[in-house]
């Protein structure tokens, strides 16, 4: 896939390592998710009695301030097996989420309270929702049904087939990055994004 921007032809950039892709997501999270969200690059264990898993991060979506949502994030690249690397991870997240909500709420608040920009954004969402305070607002965010979000550089049909088998609310966000053919050091990131929803 290529894009024409002005006089420049941009070619699709292939990520070799998941860490590289994840760094892009973290760095440009406001562009990816929007200004009424909080992306938290936190890798903490979610545990239930028999399942333990570590998500890549968490997203608080306050686009609809009165109905905020929490997404458990999995960042992946297309080179990884959709069953072993993504399907099993998302199933573990969905299975352990309910029993982990109290600990998730604790480390989210701890992380946000140390970051003035994120705290301000949470306070703005709280104010717009008419919640009593940010503690009450964060309760509304966390104590809900599981929602998962897979970010990937290419969403192939086999990924959707795997996720459709999981009885959970999981969306896929395809994030493609491009490099300039006239300037190899210049990467035009997040020029193309596509969201796909897997229904329960």
General description of the model:
The chain is α+β, with helices and mostly antiparallel strands and 200 residues long. 39% of the residues lie in helices and 30% in strands. It is built from six helices and ten strands. The strands form two sheets. Strands 1, 2, 3, 6, 7, 8, 9 and 10 form an eight-stranded mixed beta sheet that branches. It is globular, with a radius of gyration of 18 Å.
Order of helices and strands: EEHHEEEEEHHHEHEE
Name the overall outline.
Answer: globular
Low-confidence stretches: 185-194
Count of runs of 4 or more consecutive helical residues: 6
What's the story with the biggest beta sheet? 8 strands, mixed
Decide which structural class fits the backbone.
alpha+beta
The radius of gyration over CA amounts to 18 Å
Strand percentage, roughly? 25-35%
* N- to C-terminal distance: 31 Å
Average of the residue pLDDT scores:
85
- Residues in helices, as a percent range: 25-40%
Number of strands: 10
Based on the model shown, name its key terms.
200 residues, alpha+beta, two-stranded antiparallel sheet, 6 helices, 10 strands, globular
Task: Write a brief structural summary.
Helices cover about 40% and strands about 30% of the residues. It contains 6 helices and 10 strands; from the N terminus they run ββααβββββαααβαββ.
């Amino acid at each position: 896939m290529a894009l024409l921007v002005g006089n420049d032809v941009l070619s699709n950039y292939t990520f070799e390592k998941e860490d590289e892709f994840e760094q892009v997501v973290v760095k440009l999270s406001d562009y990816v998710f929007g200004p009424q969200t909080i992306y938290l690059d936190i890798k903490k264990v979610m545990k239930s009695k028999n399942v333990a898993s570590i998500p890549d991060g968490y997203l608080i979506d306050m686009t609809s301030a009165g109905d905020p949502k929490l997404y458990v994030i999995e960042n992946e690249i297309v080179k990884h097996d959709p069953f072993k690397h993504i399907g099993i991870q998302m199933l573990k997240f969905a299975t352990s989420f309910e029993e982990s909500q109290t600990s998730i709420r604790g480390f989210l608040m701890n992380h946000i309270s140390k970051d003035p920009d994120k705290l301000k954004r949470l306070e703005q969402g709280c104010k717009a929702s008419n919640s009593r305070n940010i503690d009450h607002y964060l309760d509304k965010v966390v104590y809900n049904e599981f929602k998962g979000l897979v970010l990937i550089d290419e969403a192939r049909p086999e990924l959707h087939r795997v996720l459709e088998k999981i009885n959970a609310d999981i969306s896929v966000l395809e994030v493609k990055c491009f490099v300039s053919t006239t300037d190899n050091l210049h990467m035009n990131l997040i020029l193309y994004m596509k969201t796909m929803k897997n229904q329960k």
